[in-house]
Amino acid sequence: MPGAGIHGTELILLTLVTSVALLAALAQKLKTPYPIVLVLGGLVLSFVPAVPNVSLNPTFIFLVVLPPLLFGSALNTSWREFRHNIVIIGLLAFALVGFTVAGVAVAAHLLMPGFDLKTGAVLGAVVCTTDAIAAGAIARRVGLPRRLVDIIEGESLINDASGLLALQFAAAIVASGTAPSLLHGFWQLLYLVGGGIAAGMLVGKIISLFERPLQGSALQTLVSVATPYFAYLLGEGIHASGVLATVACGLYIGRKASDTFTSEARLDSRAVWNTIDFALNGFVFILIGLQLPAVLDGMRPLNWPRLIGGAAFVCALVIALRIIWMFPGARLAHFIQRRLLHQQIARPNPRELFVIGWSGMRGVLALAAALSLPVVTDTGNPFPHRQAIIFLAFSVILVTLVGQGLSLPVIIRKLRVCESTHDQLEERVARRALLSAALESLVKMRDSNETTDEVSLDLLERYYRQRLKDLGPDDDHHSSAQRDRIYANLSGRLRQVERNELVKLRDNGEIGDGTLRKLERELDLLDMRWRVSS
């Protein structure tokens, strides 16, 4: 029957959507980062016979899922902080990747039966990259300081490209039996990085020029959703890094959004991107858990002591290599920033370095990379240890995502790595500057010959002066913050009264649904204004 396949697909999608929603709600209730709960929920569902097998297609992940997720993360990345931390991010994204590949290759060759340096390098390339989404979601949820989150997210945005290049080289060596020259590898890396960044910046520039004259919020949001695919496909089309093209484009668009987007488009696109990010992340993390039966099928017959022992060894090795590298790598970054770039930065804090090292969680990209390995080599022989590499990659994802993700809050509390007050002070300085500029403009309006209503000017001046007073000096910040919380609570209760009255008017037939939605949107925007500022 022609529609049978379609109905089966609908049933699978409905099951996945329902599972993601229920597990995400459970994560909120447990106050646990949702990626962890979704992965564990997927593992549990994989043992339920009625749940259909859903295979993870690496091509689908690379071409459909990865671009919007990378783009959404890059949009929200601070270009100032990214540029300030570019040295340590670059060392994490490139030097640490190489260190991990080499370390895993040597350890696998010496300690894992059947693995030589070449297949060990393939395994290292598969598990060397951190997950941008998992690391960011968990880091923010457990309360990491903003500067550490910037470093972790910046690393995971860039190391996807270096990890995939390392995998491409290692897999090519195993499949063909020949190794490219070091010079060839250097130039390919240079072209991969430079070409990808150039492609992303080009797409970002074109999209910004195209969006500037647009006024419709829906049209601007539609262009925004399509942008990561333009950047990724152009990067891949010129045989450069589609990942870096997407990241560069996202950073550029995010930097220019204040000039190119209308106010309504910024609000709407933020809501759309939040939904896209959550939906794709939800599907990705639950799919990771659902891959367990397929991963185990490839390892039959199941020798559990050997499987668990090998997985424990590789997981411990990957975690240890990252932590070991963090301390000399951070010192090198500090030396470059102080001596060569003349940046005035403090020496790296060992407790913060350990937290960054412990935050190296792996995600769907590692599993997709393992699944993308060729089944046979150029000679027609099976790709060596392909199923073992897939199983070990799955184990590393599970241990780092769940184990490190759940233990990270405890480690942060024990090491007392707390949120800095710098961001709060910076925000207060910015708010004072905005209010002062508005008050200066009001004075100019009074002095000009422009016809302006004095009552309106008085009301606006009182409003801005009260807001400026509420910011107050630093020693009065606590009382003003407390007053803001009380005001926000009372005003929120009053807006709920207004909503109830709106619904009553609509139910009594005195107003239509259109009027209700218009006035309700105004109340919702006020809710958002106080939620953001509180």
Q: Which SSEs are present, and which pair or pack?
A:
Blueprint: H1 4-30, H2 34-46, H3 58-75, H4 79-84, H5 86-111, H6 117-127, H7 132-141, H8 146-176, H9 182-211, H10 217-237, H11 242-260, H12 263-290, H13 292-297, H14 304-340, H15 350-358, H16 364-371, H17 386-415, H18 422-447, H19 454-471, H20 477-507, H21 513-533
Helix pairs in contact: 1-2, 1-12, 2-12, 2-17, 3-10, 3-11, 3-12, 3-16, 5-6, 5-8, 5-14, 6-8, 6-17, 7-8, 8-9, 8-11, 9-10, 9-11, 10-11, 10-12, 14-15, 14-17, 15-17, 16-17, 18-19, 20-21
Helix tally?
Answer: 21
Q: What can be said about the biggest beta sheet?
A: none
Average pLDDT: 84
Q: How does the helix and strand content classify structurally?
A: mainly alpha
The CATH class assignment of the largest domain is: Mainly Alpha
What's the CATH topology name of the largest domain?
Na+/H+ antiporter like fold
Determine the strand fraction and express it as a percent band. Answer: under 5%
Please give the number of β-strands.
Answer: 0
* Shape type: globular
- SSE string, helices as H and strands as E: HHHHHHHHHHHHHHHHHHHHH
Q: Poorly predicted ranges (pLDDT <50, ≥5 residues)?
A: none
- Cα-based radius of gyration, to the nearest Å: 26 Å
Helix residue percentage: over 70%
In the CATH hierarchy, what is the architecture of the largest domain at level 2?
Up-down Bundle
Number of domains: 3
Kindly, what is the distance between the CA atoms of the first and last residues, rounded to a whole number of angstroms? 57 Å
